[in-house]
Design brief:
272 residues; alpha/beta; 11-stranded mixed β-sheet; 8 helices; 11 strands; EC 2.7.7.87; tRNA binding
């Protein structure tokens, strides 16, 4: 039996659209849906999100409502992507060698390149590093903020020796970012933290910058475009009594040096 062309075309269109109606998105055209998925994926209806989630990883807004979910992922040994006050980073439990190794695999990074840790509050730093040689109030003046302080681990540090093996020092961050600090507090450990990008590639200031790596994370938390640029945190070695050494200028070097010198620290002389 010959079917009129217009009738056949209409039947095919209805058949194609019906699965989309079942997903609660009947009012979108197919091309519109693809555009919506590429640009505004986190706002998709939950049923559609479940369909696409297995392909690119699960994207969530970086809000308090999703903090508990992130904490549980950390406790389960997963890697998550989070915003900080400088760049987007990959984070995991610093005391889980398996999770730490996973970060190295995702980034394609050599194990000889050390990872920093992130804690929720300045008062937590002493659990992981030696701080009793520092002037009173120094760490509280630098942190929370876009600074990584390098300190000696010490014999009482609860950080696993498998993190940065062979190094007696550890870089510590307390970002000025509530979301990652809530996660660090809730996980009751330190987070291993490094920039969310392939090793040697530009750092990420929005989640689109590392979209090719989403699928390797349990969750990707979207905090929008970060305003501080790609310089990252200022890294300063404070492991020696009365001395400091800038290891990376980063985004806050002038402010950092001013605080250090206000607390009577002197720059470490360059090696001859």
């Amino acid at each position: 039996m010959n079917v009129p062309a217009k009738f056949a075309e209409r039947s095919l269109l209805l058949t194609f659209r019906s699965p989309l109606r079942a997903l609660g998105v009947a009012k979108f055209g197919f091309v519109q849906i693809l555009k919506q998925n590429r640009r505004f994926r986190v706002s998709f209806p939950k049923k559609m999100e479940a369909v696409m989630g297995s392909e690119l990883g699960v994207v969530r807004p970086a809000t308090d409502a999703h903090a508990e979910e992130a904490i549980e992922a950390i406790k389960a040994g997963k890697v998550i992507a989070v915003p900080t006050d400088t760049l987007y980073g990959f984070a995991c439990d610093a005391c889980s060698s398996e999770a730490v190794n996973r970060i190295y695999e995702i980034k394609g990074r050599k194990h000889t390149s050390p990872l920093a840790i992130c804690v929720g509050d300045v008062s937590d730093i002493q659990r992981f590093a030696v701080t009793d040689h520092l002037p009173d109030g120094l760490l509280g003046s630098l942190l929370p903020g876009p600074v990584t302080v390098v300190l000696q681990r010490g014999e009482l540090s609860i950080i696993e020796k498998s993190l940065n093996p062979g190094l007696d020092s550890i870089g510590v961050r307390v970002p000025d970012c509530d979301f990652i600090r809530v996660i660090a507090r809730g996980s009751e450990t330190a987070l291993a933290l490094t920039s969310a990008n392939l090793s040697g590639q530009p750092s990420s200031v929005c989640i689109k910058d590392f979209e090719n790596l989403w699928e390797h994370c349990a969750y990707v938390y979207d905090g929008g475009v970060l305003p501080s640029g790609r310089a990252g945190s200022t890294v300063v070695d404070l492991s020696r009594l009365g001395k400091y050494k800038i290891l990376r200028p980063g985004s806050a070097m002038e402010e950092t040096v001013a605080i250090l010198e206000r607390h009577s620290l002197m720059p470490e002389a360059a090696a001859a």
